[in-house]
Design goal:
Strand order of the largest sheet: 10-11-16-15-14-17
Structural class: alpha/beta
CATH topology of the largest domain: L-fucose Isomerase, Chain A, domain 3
Largest sheet: 6 strands, antiparallel, barrel
CATH class of the largest domain: Alpha Beta
Number of domains: 2
CATH architecture of the largest domain: Alpha-Beta Barrel
Radius of gyration: 25 Å
Number of helices: 15
């Protein structure tokens, strides 16, 4: 993955001057030892600031200079004892990156006189002072713990920080307006700017011109050969690979020439109705390859879909995809393949589908084909370029961050799985199962006016995604509520 941040967290311990500094010194040392013991391979991503225990504003400046000099782009403010309200909150104010506040629990009932730190109390004052100064900081659900607990909090902060650092350095590049009848994928750009994300909107003609300038590019044979290796026996449309290689190079060069001062890029591309007739193919396979490199590409100029994919890629550290919440599982298929074998009812299941944009690493037997839906009204030869196959079974998280038409940020997160059930269908498709999906579909997806596109992260990442959305100021993050927990609009008599 070359398009998401590497996070290095600086741990700065603080101390109130009327408490023993040794409490913070020893507890910081124990914290770092616990992190190394639990997460050895990731230990280099966490840096212990050794220059001082922060008790004053001068110490705060010294600590900030040290973590900056050592390449830290995220910060943990660790209350080894009660902590200095002003200095510790100024750490977060002046640090250029996300900051988390955590605090030390007391270690022993035999040491509650000289060894009592009162950080449980100090965390209250820290939060109060953060609010006074309007400083946004991340505080975990249970922010006070022993060394092992706090090490786990830091580990859980890493993917959250990765997403927040990434968003501050992201540019979304889009091509063309949304296709007709795709108003649901609206993209008010005001909230992108509020999140610190840049956007560059281009015409399809700009992309078309760049594509033609890449005709005969000497790199095409090498990219084509790489496609052939990736596809293997699934290379059923070899005649289209040269054009797809030309298109891939066009996009990669565009990214390098247009990302400007931003480090990370996501794309929102056009794929119909004129794309296939003018370019002579569909871009799905190329989109899948870029996403496989950590450069998310959304279909149908879905800008917030691309944004969601990027967040998912940062949080999971893995490939993501964008799918339609597409169709129901037929009752006869449910009865023969799912009922009694998996703990889901019929309405817990659905099929997630898109034409062919999912990376080959996330498909069973990926095969290059043509776009069947488009080929119903167009010559088949101009619809080639989809990568089809059933999506690999396993845990997933379905989610989306979206701005409403009146510029209010909303999000949803739901964990589930792709079942090991043959889809008997076409495209990149899987049988998905999410507990209480039917109620979630009605009272979140429909009621909150979400579009049909959802981002998919492979694995269960709901906890981190929820925290990212909360940090970004999303006040309404929907989730698949369990039985007995009614949605506000749900009929209790139904």
């Amino acid at each position: 993955m070359n398009n998401i941040p590497e996070v290095k967290i600086g741990v700065v311990a603080v101390s109130r001057d009327c408490f023993p500094e040794s409490l913070s010194v020893n507890r910081r040392k124990a914290l770092m030892e616990a992190f190394a013991a639990q997460y050895g391979p990731e230990a280099p991503s966490v840096y212990e600031c050794p220059v001082c225990i922060v008790e004053s504003e001068i110490h705060m400046v010294q600590a900030l200079e040290d973590v900056k000099k050592n390449g830290c782009n995220a910060l943990v403010v660790y209350l080894g004892n009660f902590g200095p309200e002003i200095s510790e909150t100024l750490l977060a104010k002046h640090f250029d990156g996300p900051a988390m506040f955590i605090a030390a629990a007391e270690e022993s009932g035999d040491n509650l006189v000289g060894g009592r730190g009162d950080a449980y109390c100090g965390m209250l004052n820290a939060s109060y002072n953060l609010k006074l100064r309007e400083i946004k900081a991340y505080i975990p659900e249970n922010p006070v713990g022993d060394a092992a607990d706090c090490a786990r909090m830091i580990h859980e902060f890493i993917p959250i920080a990765r997403a927040l650092v990434g968003l501050r350095n992201l540019k979304i590049i889009s091509f063309g307006p949304r296709p007709l009848n795709f108003l649901a994928c609206n993209a008010p750009i005001k909230r992108l700017y509020d999140l610190g994300v840049e956007i560059e909107e281009n015409s399809e003609l700009d992309l078309f011109e760049a594509f033609h300038k890449h005709a005969g590019d000497p790199r095409i044979p090498e990219v084509k050969a790489d496609m052939e290796r990736e596809l293997g026996e699934g290379n059923k449309k070899p005649e289209i690979l040269e054009k797809l290689a030309q298109y891939e190079l066009t996009l990669l060069d565009w990214i390098e020439e247009h990302k400007g001062y931003r480090q990370y890029v996501a794309l929102a591309g056009k794929c119909w109705p004129a794309f296939q007739t003018q370019f002579g193919f569909v871009p799905c396979y190329v989109n899948s390859r870029l996403t496989g490199r950590g450069i998310p590409v959304s279909c149908e100029v879905d800008v917030y879909g691309a944004l969601s994919e990027f967040i998912g890629s940062c949080v999971s550290g893995d490939i993501v995809t964008l799918l339609d919440i597409n169709n129901t599982v037929p009752k006869d298929m449910y009865q023969s393949e799912i009922e009694g074998k998996f703990p889901y009812g019929l309405t817990d299941t659905f099929m997630g589908f898109h034409c062919g944009n999912t990376c080959s690493k996330k498909l069973c037997s990926p095969t290059m084909k043509y776009q069947m839906i488009m080929a119903r009204t167009l010559p088949e030869e101009v619809t080639q370029g989809t990568l089809e196959g059933d999506i690999v079974p396993g845990d997933i998280t379905f989610f989306r961050l979206q701005s409403t038409a009146d510029s209010v940020l909303r999000a949803y997160v739901a964990e589930g799985e792709v079942l090991p059930v043959a889809t008997r269908s076409f495209g990149g498709v899987g049988v998905f199962a999410i507990h209480e999906m039917g109620r979630f579909y009605r009272h979140v997806l429909i009621e909150k006016n979400y579009p049909h596109h959802g981002a998919v992260a492979f694995g269960h990442h709901g906890r981190a995604l929820f925290e990212v959305f909360k940090f970004l100021g999303v006040e309404d993050t929907g989730f698949n509520q369990p039985k007995g927990m009614l949605y506000p609009s749900e009929n209790p008599f139904a």
